[in-house]
Structures are given as structure tokens and as C-alpha cells.
DNA sequence: GAACCTCTAAACAAGG
DNA sequence: CCCTTGTTTAGAGGTT
């Protein structure tokens, strides 16, 4: 999008074309020296992680989009939405507790993600335009959600409400896509009543919109369920109707095994009046001294009081029934959505793992200015290294939000400013043990770096060294080093003057790089001894380094978001995935530790020679001697290093080969 | 505050 | 003369 001058780095990346540039709220606009205050958050993320995250974000984006539609659209026949007094707060409520705020979302999204997200939004928009009827339905439902959200938000702000109810509604909102909505409306014909009931339950003043909202509902719905025909006052459902309601509810709970998901009536399909589970010490509807009935945050000091409250306030009446129904809809919708997303994720994973040679989702038309042939060749040759993200259905929706948000912030900060920490040295060792940052990072994210204009979180020295060591002969000419940079990193396809100068500077400056006169000229090799010498200080300095790198070229915002995405997705992945194993955990650690020092681990792993996929840890402490026999050791190590940062479920030998075959590519030029 | 690291920028030289 | 390669210096920001 923008063309940078050769000497100075631009502040906007090509991938900001989506208008996303405004997203990063934390970055400074001009100087760029502050970009990554949490500089060390970068590190390990695989494209799959990003995909995973992308899905999450897309869902949220869709939800937000729906809200915007609801509040901003003049939909035919449903303008009452605009009158809703809660529309604005709602959008806030949507994201308040567990959800990612727009800013956060923007920060954690990498450009490719953002692009994908926007595409999803567009697709949604198209769908939305399919019918005003749908829209009316959506708006009704959204309004309902808004009301509840608003209420819950208020209570949450007062610290009265735990997150669960909101989570449920968020999930519902997440799940809302037009087609699903339509199906939902078909399946459950009584939504208006549910809405009314909700409103009543929350004690909101509905005078402004209750009538309107009702008008928008299909008449069939009102015929189905007597509830919704009630005035906005308290319910007066005849007992006969209640019986029907109960039947209806029972049928629902029986029908779709929703009992696991809808704890309202605990196990089975017992009516709310049942005391079975209420007597248990831990009631699913009771926690933190509050009633967790959706929309109810009544304080109950003890279980007895809660049970009383439950029986009194949430007895079998139309309100409770309606709420229950809504909750069931939530669950149903979630299940549908979960199935869809799981399926999609599965397909994505299948695609990524089974067809390495296919273009990756992150193949974006970012900038292919130079070394196009190399790039293409490379992308085909470098397919894998992707960790197996959790493919279980549980991953996509539920558990993700809470864990990462908490963990990431704390852990990231802990690591970033290497405070004193008993864990410090251990952490470092672990990271060193299990992974080779550069190797694994590149292996896992090579496609990303190749296509995204993101600066790799490594020093020039480590990159150069990696390039050299990666070469068949452990030696490269300057030009070959250049080519390696441009081939591996989209970022280095621009600003050539800057980084090439830096490369030369590094080659000359560091003792670890030895110039050797060769037949075909001068080549550069790596003196491992020298390189290791300067390691210790480097490790500690890595966070700084990252910051420098981030800010240095003016990619503060981008990198910040990228790193946030890295951290977020990695963490969430770890959190949610039982599949993630020690190596991955280690890679997570790496995320916060030295990045360039990683590269040194390449040899370290090599030196010990043991190539156990999962770990080749301990012995690498004194890798110094490696230089003497770089040739063989290196080759052995590379696969190891790759595996180290990844889960062991990788599809194997082919990938390694791919990686290796990547090297000869340099001869292309 | 010193020492150290890294990055950027620039000047300069030598060779093709 | 231009470009590439290689060396060197200087300054800035950051961490320990």
C-alpha cells in the first residue's frame, strides 16, 4: 500500500490497508520507540494458532457486527431497535467481562487475521442483506440480548454478578449468524415471550419498546406460546399454560441432552421445583453468594437462603420458563455453532496438516516485490511445523477467554521485565532446553514471516547466524545472506538499505562471524565459540532487543498487535489444549525469553547429538565445541529443534525434509 | 551510573 | 562511475 523510501522505514505497513492501522491503541504514532512496551511478548506462534485465534475473533467480530447492525440500521419494520435505551451500553457490555475489547482484539490481530476478519464481516453483511425479515428477527433477539447484557453489565460493574450469565449471552451472540437465527426462530417459535419474560425478569423499564418489539414478531409465534401475548406486566399465565410450558421445557431438555449444558435444572429434566440438586452443597446456580440464574444476581448468604430464593423467585412460572427457554436456545445455538466451528477447525487443520504444499491461509498479497521465485519455492518447501492445536470441540468457544486474558497479562509482564524471580533461571533453562527459538519459530511461522510484513523478533546476528548454519556448507556469501533474509521474511524485502547495512555491520562487527576467502569469493561462517561467548548478556537483553526491533523500524503498532496475538493465541492454545505438551509449553516460555539466543540452541541441541523429538534438554549447557564439527551435527539437530517447539504430533519426516530442502533454494539465485 | 547489547546511520575504502 | 562488499565510527535506546 505504501511505498517506503529506501532509507527510512515507513510507519504503516502494507497490511494495514484495512484501515486497521488505527487499531493499535498502544503504539505511538510517530517516534515508534515505544511500540512494544511488552516487548518480549513476541515469540512462538504457529499459523495454526493464528487461525485459531482468527476464528475466535471472527466470531466476535460477527457478533459485534450484528450489534452494530441492530443499533445502526434502519431496518424495515423494526426501527424500535434504535429506540432501545441500551444499545450503546450493550455493545460495551458485550465485551466487558470475558470478551476481548475492540482495542484488544485489534491489538492481538495480525494483519492477516484482520483481513480475514473483515472478510467474514463482509460475508456477514451480505447474509444480512438477504432479508429484512431476518433482520427483524435478529434485531429482536439482539435487543433481547442487549437488555440482558445491559442489566448484567450494570450488575457486574457493581461486582454483583459473576461472569457466567454474561458468558452465556455472549456465546449466544457469538453464535448468531443469520442463518442460524432463522433456524432458531423456526425451532423456537416463542421468542417474543422469552424476551418479554427476560425484560420482566430484569425489571427493566420496557415502556418504550415493549409494544414495538412485540409487533415485530411473527404472529405464529404468539399463537404458539401464550406467554408472549401477555402485557408487559407480570405474568398471568394460567396453570394450563404452565403445564404446557413445562412439557415444552421437558421435551427440550430430553431432546437434546442439553442437561449437560444447561444446569438450570441440573441433571436430567426435572422441573425447577425439584429439590434434588438443590440440597447438594454446590448448586450450579449458586456461586459466590449469588444466584446465578440468568438475569438474577440475588445475593444469598448460604445455600439454604439460595434454595429459598430459588423456589420463590425461580419457580415454575412463565418467566422462569421463558428464561429457561432462552437458556436452552443459547445452549442449542452454541452447540450448533460449536459443531460448525469444530468442523471448520477440523477442516482447517486437516488442510494444513495433510496438504503441506497447498497455499497457506496466510498467503497474502502483501509484498512480493523481490525474490519472487524464491518465495514461491520456499512456500512450497516449508510447509509444516505446525503444532496440533486442539481439535476437540471444547476448544473454540468456551474456555478460551478467561484463561488467556488472565494468564497472559500476568505472565507476560512477569517475563518482560525480568524482575527477580525464582523462576527466572529455570525458565531460561527450560526454554533453552526444549526449543531453539529461531529454528522453531521459523519452522512454525515461516509462512507468516514470509508473507506478513512483520519484523522477526531476532537480532541480526542471530538471523545471520541461523542463515549461515542453515546453509549446506555452513557458509554463505553476503549476497546469499541477503537472499536468505528476503526469502524468509517479507519484512526484509523492503528497507533494503537499512537492513543490509545492518547485516554487513553485524558481520563485520561480531567476532563470531568469520570471513573466509573461498574459491568463489569470500564467504561468511560462524564461529560458534565466539557466538557462545557473547550469549549470556544477550539472553537477558532479549526483551530489550525486541523492543528495539519493534520500535526501531517503526512497526510498533504492528508488532505490538502481532506479539499480542502471539501471546494471546499461544496462551489460549496452551490453556485450552490438553494436546499441548511440554515442548510446546517450553516454546511458550520462549515466548518471553531470549529470542535470538534461541538460535544458539541449535548447536546446543546438536552438540548433544541426542535427537529425541520431545526433548533433548539438559546437556546443552556447554555447546562450545560445536564449531569443530558443524556439518553433521547441525543437520541432525535441525529436525530436533523444529520438533522441540512443536508438539510431537507433527507429521514428520517429510516436513523435515522440506525444511532441509529449503536450503538449496539459495542456489536459485 | 557504568557496562553491555542492539540497532540505525553514515562515512570510507577496495574491488569488479 | 556505479555497485557491492567490508570496515569503522557514532549515537540512541534499552537492560543488568
Automatic annotation (TrEMBL):
Residues 28-38 have a biased composition (Gly residues). Residues 657-669 have a biased composition (Acidic residues). Keywords: DNA-binding, Metal-binding, Nucleus, Repressor, Transcription, Transcription regulation, Zinc, Zinc-finger. Residues 1-45, 259-282, 404-429, 602-621, 645-669 are annotated as: Disordered. GO terms for molecular function: DNA-binding transcription repressor activity, RNA polymerase II-specific; RNA polymerase II cis-regulatory region sequence-specific DNA binding; zinc ion binding. CDD domains: FH_FOXP4. Residues 414-429 have a biased composition (Basic residues). This is Fork-head domain-containing protein. It comes from Poecilia mexicana. The lineage of its organism: Eukaryota, Metazoa, Chordata, Craniata, Vertebrata.
